[in-house]
Structures are given as C-alpha cells and as structure tokens.
Amino acid sequence: MARRKKIYEGKAKALYEGPEPGTLVQYFKDDATAFNAEKKSVIEGKGVLNNRLSEFFMTGLSNIGIPTHFIKRLNMREQLIRQCEIIPLEVIVRNFAAGSMAKRLGLEEGVQLPRPIIEFSYKDDALGDPLVPEEYIIAFGWASQQELDDVIALGLRVNDYLSGVMYGVGIKLIDFKIEIGRIWEGDFMRLVVADEISPDSCRLWDVESGKKLDKDVFRHDIGSLTDAYSEVAHRLGVLPSNGKIDANITQIN
After folding, report:
1. Does the reported pTM lie above 0.90?
2. Rounded to whole angstroms, how far apart are CA atoms 126 and 123?
3. Of 46, 162, 172, 219, which sits 20 to 30 A from 236 (CA to CA)?
4. What confidence tens digit (pLDDT) does each residue in 70-90 have?
5. CA–CA separation, 73 vs 56, rounded Å?
C-alpha cells in the first residue's frame, strides 16, 4: 500500500493522515534530542519503547475517566489517535525540584516541593519554549480562563495517577510535561491529554537509589537510554515476557 501523507514531523514523532476522518497515525522515532535539539542522537529501539509506554499510560488514564487522544496501538511504532487542536502550551507538573526549576531557584535537586506545582511553557522551539504566566496565556488567547482551569485540573489528575503507578513499582515521579488538545463533537468541545506520556516527557528516579530512568540519562551521558527505558517498561509489565523489543518495524501502510 502507498505510504500515508505526512502531516507533521517533530523531534521524536511524526504524524500521518489516519484511515478515517478525524484520526491520525502517530509514529515514534528513535531520535533523541536534548537542550532544545542542540544534542542529537539516534537510539535504536527508543521509539518502540515510548510507543508501548505511552499506550500503557494513555490507556490507564482512559480507564479512570481522564480523556485522551489515544485510540489504539497499531504496531510496535505506531498508534491511532484522534486528531485534535493542540493548545500551544507545555503543561509541566513538578513534585520535586529538578532541572530548570532547581537552577532558577537555587534548590537542591530532589527536594520535595510543598505541593505539586504547575508551570506553562509556550511551545516554540525557536524561542526555547519559554515559561509563561497564566496572564500571558489569557491575554494572547492561547486558552480561555475556563480552559486553563480545566487544564490545571487535568494536570493534577494525571499527576495523581502517574505518581501512584510509578511509586507502586519503586519509581519516584519527579516531574513530567503533557500537552492538551481540543476535540469537537458537534457543538461540544472537550479537552484531552494528547502527544505522549513516556520517559521522554517525565523525570523518573528509583525510589531507593535515586538512579535516573529518564531522558536525563541521555542529557548528561550517565548510561544507556535504552536500558533505562527498558527498566521502566519491565517494572510496569509493558515489555513482552521475553524482555525483547522489535526495533525494526518502520513502515506505515
């Protein structure tokens, strides 16, 4: 069959037209980037792992009533998703100080925050995805006040779910980022969790040792990214029983 029309390609994923109106095929690449794409590499199997892990988390969210764009996994690298209008914000939920927050505030990495803190960054690679206050979001029309309230509520619900699931397998959820999309059903609009949820978009530390099991492994050259992501998948029971992944599925039909 002919290859489907590519709609969009980002740093870690590509979107293709879907088989039905209102659907897309999301393809997970092996590309790894850090520091706003200043550091790049191709890591065999990364896309397969992120596809399987994102399926696991999106399905779990749907099962507890949190709407997502996910429909089903098609194969080891592709998912069928609902087409949605992405709000141009990264929604960052932090439970512990790390990364840019620790640097900005002079906090020691790993210090628990008084409560989960939500930050927003404006999605623009050329600008480095700058942090923006809620006032900017409303003033520039990126989201309405009601939408912003709903986004915050969604972020906290996702945090409750992810924190519990991760802690149950001995992993501390330091922080994560999600994207939110709008889907229209007739005249009714609803917000859904979109993009992906994977170790690419989370900071995950082993509860006992503090070992990092996320993209910081690649950012700071502290081990094998595939091994780190595979460990997360093993703990969650996502990998096949033989513990192997097929990293060679690349075609979109």
Report:
1. yes
2. 9
3. 219
4. 999 999 999 999 999 999 999
5. 10
